[in-house]
UniProtKB/TrEMBL annotation, chain A:
PROSITE patterns: PROKAR_LIPOPROTEIN. Belongs to the bacterial solute-binding protein 1 family. Residues 23-38 have a biased composition (Polar residues). Residues 1-18 form the signal peptide. One of its GO terms (cellular component) is cell envelope. This is Carbohydrate ABC transporter substrate-binding protein (CUT1 family).
Automatic annotation (TrEMBL), chain B:
Keywords: Cell membrane, Membrane, Transmembrane, Transmembrane helix, Transport. It comes from Ureibacillus acetophenoni. One of its GO terms (cellular component) is plasma membrane. It is found in: Cell membrane. The lineage of its organism: Bacteria, Bacillati, Bacillota, Bacilli, Bacillales. One of its GO terms (biological process) is transmembrane transport. This is Carbohydrate ABC transporter membrane protein 1 (CUT1 family). The keyword Transport applies.
Automatic annotation (TrEMBL), chain C:
This is Carbohydrate ABC transporter membrane protein 2 (CUT1 family). PANTHER family: ABC TRANSPORTER PERMEASE PROTEIN MG189-RELATED, ABC TRANSPORTER PERMEASE PROTEIN MG189-RELATED-RELATED. It is found in: Cell membrane. Residues 69-258 form the ABC transmembrane type-1 domain. SUPFAM superfamilies: MetI-like. Keywords: Cell membrane, Membrane, Transmembrane, Transmembrane helix, Transport. It comes from Ureibacillus acetophenoni. Its main location: membrane. One of its GO terms (biological process) is transmembrane transport. InterPro entries: MetI-like, MetI-like_sf.
């Protein structure tokens, strides 16, 4: 105990000194840079058609799929391994998406990245920034291993765009979902209401449906982070990827924010708040309709059925235009691999979303098939007939859009959402909120 | 016994320390030094370990960031709310559990349960306790004519909600530490005091408190440090968000967000560095007070 | 009379407290037996309408829990024993030995507690990767073989043991090492058992670290298995709680077994003050 506190001060001094002396080690990093740069250049494409896989190649695919999703993915992967001599793809479950992202970060730092991973677009933006992932254009264009134009354009346009940065394709879409309107059929029938297709109808219906026990509209807690949906529907723009500008502080943005905020402030709409997710209150009959992810369908189905709630889904209501956000991860390929490993990885990526597999995957998981040919197939059509709620998401594909992809997108989206939240909490007026969001966005984007 | 240690003494001392020093040196001290160093990176490539220039940019950034100040304030509120309450409540319960009571074993097991119960279960039950409409807390408050509080929806109440849950959650752990500490007090002291006719309170004040002081000192330092580092509980109680409108964002949440979600490694390190300095100062104060009050 | 009254008061206080402590635990067990619809009900039902015991079977089959259990047991046993040994040695040095730099080394180690663990994850991953230990038991065990928290705790406990014992032993010609193992360790049994218990629970419940440093199902531990019940769109609470209940059961049993060593320390050790 004697003078321990003094020692703690000394200890601190020692730490600082040690930190400074370890500086010299850091400098050496510069030397190794030259070699690692060469490594990536070597892997730049040198005629993919000329590559043959003659020796056994084993590659890893890191994913965050669990339960039934994982089983379906495993089945597709087994099929691939059985049909491709010399290639073995090993699935590695890395926990949830957050864990997967952390793991990729750690592996990148330790130079132990796998061949393939699931990734959101904002992760991919960071990966591109740090030169982790592979330009897929040469693979798409390859005569021997690539796609024909028809095959490539068969992938939904919105999904192709999501994976393209400055004309370079960095990934293929895998598990994609969109926002839907879930509604309580009984409540609408009792009130003699049609399912709203426009904002005006929705507002009208909301006022009728709200009573002592029921709040008409539910929003997930992600309302503010996914607010671009409302701005787009109002005919505005949230973010301009080409110029890197935040565009919500506009007439349309103001109109959209006012519309949603009025719903909340007048008590006909609520956010999930303390309930965590809207599926709970919806399955209890506390709300008449809510906006949620199509990936959540199975989680609504079971409890709602038990509680005797009759429900269905519909496309998002529109205002100036229809717009639906699409989210979910893609599969992307890291670039430290040998040419053979890359080719193997590419073949797996292609296989994963061929027409048959994307149908199988969608049926097992509830995600959206990523190919037009899959949507047109008899197999999928009869599936949708049996499960009508699963057929709604695809109707929104033609006007689908996706989140801004820009360096620091995560921080930017959050900074804006924080200010919008203050509007919904009643701390800011709509104008103040937009002003503040504009400033916050400028700060994050200008960093 | 306080003669100057010889070289031989020193060698003996370090031979005892060696196993622990190797592990802690490699897996704690070394990465911490690296991360402190990183807080001075101004222009760098984290993944390739290249530093183009050093500077105070990261510190300048955080000290101009209102979010950082908000996180600091929330963390201080949290520490003030949790530390004294947690220590005193667990001390009292530990003493009760240590006295000769019926069902002592059962009670001790029950008070230990929160420590092993799944964090998810704990968070969900507290979400229910706090629920504005269905929750039991508002139900009890209703008895006293207090109108329902939106514990988890209202930014004003999110910190109190977090603090109450964390006091509850820390009890099991602290009680175990106090129970262990109480065993170090020789029962003969109590016997002697009882023979001298000392009252229960006097015995508590003159025997338990001073003789438990090394444990109390330890618990208070550990609870303080852990409270400054609160993170998981925020994540669990508010479903992965830092409360409504970021009202319960703590400093480690800020660090986590910067490091893992925004890839701002230097800024995260700088914030961790500032947190370190703050905890460090508080620990110094505790050590200083402890030096005068702790009996060995 | 007053005695009885205050005793009664103590029992009432402890019982109310117990209920508060038990709530989440009861909810966990009760949820593990519910149907998905009943899980969502608000306010929660405490007794399931129909007892779905097969949730436990379903949960068990969702992940290779047998293998995970084996790994967890190996990791807990080895790392707990290892930590106890390093802790006893270090705590003794910090509390009873005189040597150069003692307090400053202790202070540096204390300082490491002040940095959030989130900052250490990536550098430690890189270290383990350089050592070639990723996806090996080494990665799951070796970084956790020492803890400053435990050293600090035991040091405090050792400091509470009368110094006269040490002097007396020295005069009797008892070596430091023998004194430590034959006098100090038995005396500090409550603290050592406490450390072992906290360590075992911490190691048993550790999630992020085992997940990050392993690459295959064969190397993973029980808490990693809990991720099987959650997807981005929702959580199967009834299965998650069934699995959680199964996982914590061994720790509760461990506590019940070890409790008597924590509580009956000194009286058994027979210390004459």
């Amino acid at each position: 105990m004697r003078k321990l506190w003094l020692m703690l001060v000394c200890a601190f001094a020692v730490l600082v000194l040690a930190a400074c002396s370890s500086g010299s080690n850091e400098e050496q990093g510069t030397n190794s840079n030259g070699t690692s740069k060469q490594g990536t250049e070597k892997a730049e494409v040198t005629g993919i058609d000329g590559i043959e896989i003659t020796e056994p190649v084993e590659i890893e695919f890191w994913h965050a799929m669990s339960g039934d999703h994982e089983k379906a993915l495993q089945k597709i992967t087994d099929d691939f391994n059985n049909s491709h001599e010399n290639i073995t793809v090993k699935l590695v479950n890395q926990g949830g998406y957050g864990d997967l992202s952390t793991k990729v970060m750690a592996a990148a730092k330790a130079n132990t990245l796998p061949a393939l991973t699931q990734a959101y677009e904002d992760w991919m933006t960071e990966y591109i920034e740090n030169d982790f992932i592979t330009n897929l254009n040469p693979y798409v264009e390859s005569e021997k291993y690539g796609f024909t134009d028809d095959e490539f354009n068969d992938i939904m346009e919105v999904f192709r765009e999501m994976n393209t940065w400055d004309g370079v394709l960095y990934g293929l879409p895998f598990n994609k979902s969109t926002q839907l309107m879930f509604y309580n059929v009984t409540y609408f029938e009792e009130a003699g209401l049609e399912v709203p297709t426009t904002w005006d109808e929705m507002k009208e219906a909301a006022e009728i449906l709200t009573n002592d026990d029921v709040i008409a509209i539910g929003f997930e807690n992600g309302l503010s982070i996914g607010f671009n949906q409302w701005v787009h529907q109002a005919g505005g723009q949230f973010f301009d990827e080409a110029t890197g500008e935040f565009k919500m502080n506009s007439e349309e943005g103001k109109y959209a924010l006012t519309y949603v905020n009025d719903l909340i402030q007048s008590g006909v709409a609520r956010t999930a708040g303390e309930d965590g997710y809207m599926s709970g209150p919806f399955a209890r009959g506390d709300v008449a309709m809510y906006f949620g992810s199509s990936a959540g369908l199975p989680y609504v189905a079971a409890p709602a059925a038990e509680n005797g709630i009759e429900w269905s889904t519909a496309v998002l209501p529109s205002d100036a235009q229809s717009a639906a956000p699409f989210a979910g991860t893609n599969v992307t390929m890291f670039n430290h691999l040998s040419d053979e490993e890359k080719l193997a990885a590419w073949q797996y990526m292609k296989f994963l979303i061929n027409t048959d597999n994307t149908i199988y995957w969608a049926q097992q998981s509830g995600y959206i098939p990523v190919r037009q040919s899959a949507l047109d197939s008899d197999e999928w059509k009869s599936y949708v007939e049996e499960n009508p709620t699963y057929g709604v998401a695809q109707q929104q594909l033609e006007y689908g859009f996706y989140d801004p992809r820009v360096k620091g997108a995560y921080a930017f989206k959050n900074a804006v959402a924080k200010e919008l939240d203050k509007v919904f909490l009643g701390e800011y007026t709509v104008e103040e909120g937009l002003e503040a969001a504009d400033k916050a966005a400028a700060k994050e984007l200008g960093k | 016994m306080n003669q100057k240690p010889t070289l031989k003494d020193t060698l003996i001392g370090y031979s005892y320390l060696l196993p622990a020093l190797i592990i802690l040196g490699v897996f704690s001290v070394y990465p911490i030094i690296k991360s402190f160093f990183m807080s001075f990176y101004a222009d760098y490539d984290f993944f390739k370990d290249i530093v183009h220039s050093y500077g105070f940019d990261n510190f300048i950034y955080i000290f101009q960031d209102t979010e950082f100040y908000k996180s600091l304030t929330n963390t201080f509120i949290f520490v003030i709310g949790v530390v004294p309450a947690s220590i005193s409540i667990s001390l009292v319960i530990a003493i009760l559990l240590n006295s000769k009571i019926k069902f002592g074993k059962l009670f001790r097991t029950i008070y230990f349960l929160p420590f092993v119960t799944s964090v998810v279960a704990i968070a969900i039950v507290w979400q229910w306790i706090y629920h504005s409409e269905y929750g039991i807390l508002n139900y009890f408050l209703g008895w006293f004519g207090i109108s329902p509080i939106e514990w988890l929806n209202d930014p004003k109440w999110s910190m109190p909600a977090l603090i109450i849950m964390c006091i509850w959650k820390s009890l099991g752990y602290n009680i175990i530490l106090f129970l262990a500490g109480l065993q170090n007090i020789n029962p003969q002291y109590y016997l002697a005091a009882q023979i001298d006719g000392a009252s229960k309170f006097k015995r508590f004040w003159h025997i338990t408190v001073p003789l438990l002081s090394p444990t109390t000192f330890f618990v208070s330092i550990v609870v303080l440090i852990n409270s400054f580092k609160v993170f998981d509980e925020v994540f669990a109680l508010f479903n992965g968000r830092p409360g409504p409108g970021y009202s319960a964002q703590t400093i480690v949440y800020y660090i986590f967000e910067k490091f893992y979600n925004e890839w701002e490694f230097g800024i995260a390190s700088a914030a961790a560095f500032v947190l370190f300095i703050i905890i460090f100062i508080f620990t110094l104060i505790q050590l200083y007070v402890g030096k005068r009050k702790v009996n060995y | 009379m007053r005695q009885a009254f205050s005793k009664g008061f103590i029992y009432i206080l402890l019982t109310i407290g117990s209920l508060l402590m038990l709530l989440p635990f009861i909810w966990m067990i009760s949820t593990s037996l519910k149907t998905p619809g009943e899980v969502m009900s608000m306010p929660p039902t405490w007794i399931p309408e129909s007892w779905k015991w097969d949730n436990y079977l379903k949960a068990w089959e969702m992940a290779p829990f047998l293998r995970y259990t084996l790994n967890s047991i190996i990791v807990v046993i080895v790392s707990t024993i290892g930590e106890i040994i390093t802790t006893i040695l270090a705590a003794y040095a910090f509390s009873r030995l005189q040597f150069w730099g003692r307090d400053i080394v202790f202070a540096i180690l204390l300082g490491t507690m002040m940095v959030p663990g989130e900052m250490l994850l990536i550098p430690n991953f890189v270290t383990l990767s350089n050592l070639g230990w990723i996806n090996q038991y080494e990665a799951l065990i070796i970084p956790w073989l020492a803890s400053i928290f435990s050293i600090f705790l035991l040091r405090q406990y050792f400091l509470g043991v009368p110094k006269e014992l040490h002097y007396a032993a020295k005069i009797d010609g008892c070596s430091n090492f023998r004194f430590l193992w034959s006098v100090m360790v038995p005396l500090a049994k409550p603290a050592i058992v406490t450390i072992a218990l906290l360590k075992a629970i911490g190691s048993w419940n550790a999630f992020l670290w085992p997940l990050i440093v392993t690459q295959s199902e064969e190397m993973r531990t029980l808490p990693v298995g809990l991720t099987a019940f959650t997807t981005e769109a929702g959580t199967n609470f009834e299965l998650l709680m069934a699995a959680s209940s199964m996982i914590i059961l061994p720790m509760i049993i461990l506590y019940i077994i070890l409790q008597k060593y924590i509580i009956e320390g000194v009286s058994k050790a027979g210390l004459k003050g």
